[in-house]
Design brief:
Layout: E1 7-19, E2 24-26, E3 31-32, E4 36-52, E5 59-61, H1 67-80, E6 86-92, H2 102-119, H3 125-135, E7 147-150, E8 163-167, E9 175-180, H4 190-200, H5 204-223, H6 227-246, H7 257-271, E10 277-279, E11 286-290, H8 295-303, E12 310-315
Parallel strand pairs: 5-6
Antiparallel strand pairs: 1-4, 2-3, 4-6, 4-7, 7-8, 9-11, 9-12, 10-11
Helix pairs in contact: 1-2, 1-3, 2-3, 5-6
The chain binds (3R)-3-hydroxy-3-methyl-5-(phosphonooxy)pentanoic acid.
(3R)-3-hydroxy-3-methyl-5-(phosphonooxy)pentanoic acid (PMV) is lined by residues 17, 20-22, 36, 103-104, 136-138, 190-191, 281-282.
Amino acid sequence: MTKTPQQARASAPSNIALVKYWGKRDTQRNLPLTSSFSVSLSHMRSTATIQEAPGPQDLWHIHGNPNKAERVLQVAREATGDHRPLEITIENSFPSGAGLASSASSMAALALALNTMLAQDRLSTEEIATWARLGSGSSVRSLYPGYVLWDAGTQADGSDCIARTLYPAQHMPLALVVCVVDDQPKPIGSTAAMERCRETSPLYERFHTQNPADLKQATEAVKEQDFFALAEISEANCQAMHAIMHTAQPPINYFKPGTKAAIECVQKLRQNGTPCFFTIDAGPNVKVFCPPEHAQSVTEACEALPGVLYLLQDRVATSLHEDDAPQT
Ligand code: PMV
């Protein structure tokens, strides 16, 4: 018989969507309305550590409110019948709750560690993803390396809502420079913001009708290793998502003055021939992608910008493990 583990530890990377998920078809199961396309990162990661709690209560050491994580724990307990009180710690190697996808990496790491602790590593990645998804939809993409497609699926139970690696990172290596303009937790969480957009924004439906064309363009750009085509569609898709937010009632605006400065800097760099593009999630920080050989010049341009507090450096991960082989 397999021995029940006394402790478990797992880590997972953050991921950044190039074609965004911004709306749910089922809020209970946390199923997306449309598919999304992302890259998983190498250094920006979360690590979940689990051990048996010393008393009868669960103990959480986690940034912010453990609501999302509790949903993941609950489904893992229901699936395994293991109800031991647990002490759970989740640590991020980067600022939490600031639109840097810390909930995606945290929930992916938690689900992986729960698979070890409660299911003796029996689950497939697809099954682990159904646990992680309940905490953060986009965490499903953090369970796969490289360029990842998360298919929205059509089944009511979410059985065909699965992610997979479409291309390995080596197919089209990308470096990432994050312009951190504010690292404080965001004013409104993504679930509440998505719901407000669905209820009030005239652009919500349009964004989702456009999704298949955006996905096709982005995945073909990667297939053809066409950086400038990927740049154009990624920026357009990001701007469309923020336009939904800006036209919601009341409007949702995650941007700060430094956000605008970074957008303008990236646009100018590209006009002058430097291959780079930006994307921004539910937060003010600007993620700038470029081929690795241009990371130095992009870094130099971004670090001097007004409103940029500091930069974070990363790259698309070739594997899901920390310190994966550097790309050449
Ligand atoms: O998975 P959530 O609830 O954290 O939502 C993620 C939403 C965006 O980051 C804005 C877009 C995306 O596809 O990652």
